[in-house]
Amino acid sequence: MMLTKQEIVDSLRGGLIVSAQAYPGEPMRDPRTMAQVAASAVRGGAAAVRIQGISDIQATRSAVESPIIGLWKDGSSDVVITPTFQHAHAVALAGAHVIALDGTRRARPDGLSLAQTIARLREETNALVMADCGSLEDARAAAAAGADFIGTTLAGYSGERPPTTGPDLELVREIREADLGPMLVAEGRIHSPADAAATLAAGAEAVVVGTAITHPTTITSWFVDACRDR
């Protein structure tokens, strides 16, 4: 289904985005399974889904009508979330409405700046761009580069901020107070409904939850650990 930019932005505002990803080698590592998980999340009320990998994006595009935030993790350098323009272009061609990419200020493998990458995507695709950031400085740079959405996805992972036990609410507040323009999406270590509500209260306009909804291995381990600690 074709969606306009405004329709996508409006549908995400105040909503829950569910990230459906499985790691290589896991039993659920199959595009059909991820598409089914995504469809189940949409049935439960998710405003959108975040999907990794070309095959998974293609399968999910056939399974849901809600917006798809697509990404492609690849490489062994620091920048692995949709690291190059070619990765981003492929994600758009696979059917993603929004392309999620590394939005940090680190060097990209293809030598293009974030601004150059976004500009080329504007010229060649209709997809919007979500910049996965790790700090306020990243968010400022991503907004200046033309990103449509700013995510706190890499807070605690890019080396600029220490990892927090739960969501990095301080960073959410800092970006909200900076009033940069793009929609602010909280992501990372959001493990409960209370965590999700807290990010919205801190100023996020949408929230991404992955592991706590779509990763049975981790969820099971939480319960196992709780039983052992009893």
Automatic annotation (TrEMBL):
One of its GO terms (molecular function) is N-acylglucosamine-6-phosphate 2-epimerase activity. It comes from the Bacteria. It catalyses: an N-acyl-D-glucosamine 6-phosphate = an N-acyl-D-mannosamine 6-phosphate. One of its GO terms (biological process) is N-acetylneuraminate catabolic process. Keywords: Carbohydrate metabolism, Isomerase. InterPro entries: Aldolase_TIM (IPR013785), NanE (IPR007260), RibuloseP-bd_barrel (IPR011060). It is an enzyme of class 5 (isomerase). Pathway: Amino-sugar metabolism; N-acetylneuraminate degradation; D-fructose 6-phosphate from N-acetylneuraminate: step 3/5. Its EC number is 5.1.3.9. The keyword Isomerase applies. GO terms for cellular component: cytosol. HAMAP family: ManNAc6P_epimer (MF_01235). Belongs to the NanE family. Converts N-acetylmannosamine-6-phosphate (ManNAc-6-P) to N-acetylglucosamine-6-phosphate (GlcNAc-6-P). PANTHER family: N-ACETYLMANNOSAMINE-6-PHOSPHATE 2-EPIMERASE-RELATED (PTHR36204:SF1). This is Putative N-acetylmannosamine-6-phosphate 2-epimerase. It comes from Brevibacterium aurantiacum. The gene is nanE.
